[in-house]
Amino acid sequence: MDQALIIEKGIFIVAVFAITMLMAMYSTLAERKIAAWLQDRIGPNRAGKGGILQPLADGLKLFAKEEFFPNTPNKFLFVVGPAISMSMALMTSAVIPWGDRLEIFGRTVILQATDIDVALLYVFGVLSVSVYGIMIGGWASNNKFSLMSAMRASSQMISYEVAMGLSIIALLMMTGTLSLREIAAQQHGMDWNVFYQPVGFLIFLVCSFAETNRTPFDLAECEAELIGGYHTEYSSMKMGFYLFAEYASMFISSTILVVLYFGGYNYPGMDWVEANWGVNPANIIGIAVLFAKLCFFIFFYMWVRWTVPRFRYDQLMRLGWKTLIPLAIANIIITGVVILLADNA
Amino acid sequence: MITTLFYILSAITLATAFLTILSKNPIHSAIYLVLCFFSIAGHYLMFNAQFLAIVHIIVYSGAIMILMLFTIMLMNLNKEDEKNKSVLSRIAAVVSFCLVALVLLATFIKAEPQMSRYYASGEDYQSIKVLGQVLLNDYMVPFEFASVLLLVSMIGAVLLSKKEYING
Amino acid sequence: MSIETISLSGRKKEVSNKKMNFWESLYLVAIVKGLFITIRHLFTRKVTIKYPEQTRELSPVYRGQHMLMRDEEGRERCTACGLCALSCPAEAITMTAEERKPEEKHLYREEKYASVYEINMLRCIFCGLCEEACPKQAIYLTKSQVMVKSSGKREDFIFGKDKLVMPLDMAIKNTQTKAAN
Q1: What CATH number is associated with residue C132?
Q2: Does the structure show a pLDDT above 50 at B168?
Q3: What is the pTM of this model?
Q4: DSSP 3-state assignment of A286?
């Protein structure tokens, strides 16, 4: 492997990591701001200009909190829980195509950490492993309430993984590839998958709400009815890691949504820009477009949070198993029939 | 470098496998088993079998072990509850394990790698496209049998959970 | 019209437990409607008052920090009779009386005045009974129109005459407006 490639990838990975962390940090501020705006309030505006330093203040506050350990025989697993949650939330960004390519110093830099053949399966693998963070954390708390909430949260995630996988299969039948880079490249211009797979998109959207434990599926953190969920016993930055992982995974899952269904870095007229202004400006606009799209989805997550009330647990399970899964299977069948007809015609 | 990586991975695999059996706490055994599965996925990756590695993680670590953990956690197994198995059942377990190992060894010794023609063509035979074609062209019947088996077990599970309604 | 269907506000809705069909059980239409309601609030005027910079307009009868009044000539009205302290249900008021010297005639209206007048704002419940009790109309809660500020020390809440007596310029202004009328 040549050295330049290693340096290039190294820089790229660090940049992606930093951007993910920054976006997660500012998602916490955005959450509070948008919550306030939707409730006719102003929101935090004291730390820095317009509250711009609020995430730092929040982080500092979490660090300053007392580090509490419950009376548990598994201190190690108690620490491992939030660590798994956080690292799994960050791992997915490795396969996301942030843009097509840039030309720097005569090198063509591909804006993706790694273009593996099974990128989409990798995303699902990471998702399924992230359940362990919740389960181990809840179990190691040595608290029955935490254990029950960990069960609840993880069975929710497992149930919605099924519908999510099924909704993706219809998309895969269309694209014929598992590589996110190819899926993004196929949606050139305005040829976005959401126009062909609206039902699949809806199912995927609902499932990603459930996977990130966001309202209306945030049974993990309704303090009033369900005692704080699996992180009841957590305090200080360990608690912060769980919360932060939620925001990081929100950022990542909206990126995947955009790449899969909303064309990723593609925008109408990109050929014209590339022909007239060159490759680099066209791709920098592409990255900006990707971020604009995913910021909309982050906003959408927050918008829904202040619109839809929390589901009861049985409603949640009924929605997952009796509505979304049959819908996803029907979507697969219809997609298959349409593809067959289109191929024969 | 690859050799050292292999040794490290093998050490992890063996250590976690032994710890799975030896640790008294059932949750700890389950977690060691998960780690063991991960290291096995690492072995697959060293063969450049990306699809197999990822599917192994999704199916074994992501689904089966989580359900196992569910049952262990909900049953709340403790050290005190664990009963010592009788000598007969221990011997039976050892014998059946040896038989399975024998069968597996025999298969692997007999088996020949089928990738020579891909070697010749220079194609990436681990890629998901080739794998799909092989599965659905050459091995169509076993593949369908496997899916029918899964369907049957699924229906069986549903039937078991609905038992009361059928009888009453 | 039976009692079940009567609606005084005209907005009564019957709770219906009708079985939802498949399309309704997806809640899609309901959620989209809800989203439009919430997004409208993004653009409405915010009702927050940024407190230390902006203050809320208090009603004319708002009972805030007490004020020891001055008369038209700027003299303190209080004669240290102690009726306010007596009437105070929280026992927040203490005072020390003193006799007025001849050269202090321009400072105090009555022959006896309060040399020390303290209100413990931690005890005060802002009920206004001192105001009712005062025979000289010397203490008012409605005139200052300020709230008692918070603090970290208990000593800061014992307000002496320096904080309670009406500022002189305010008394001058009152006299001027009265003269103009």
Answers
A1: 3.30.70.3270
A2: no
A3: 0.82
A4: helix
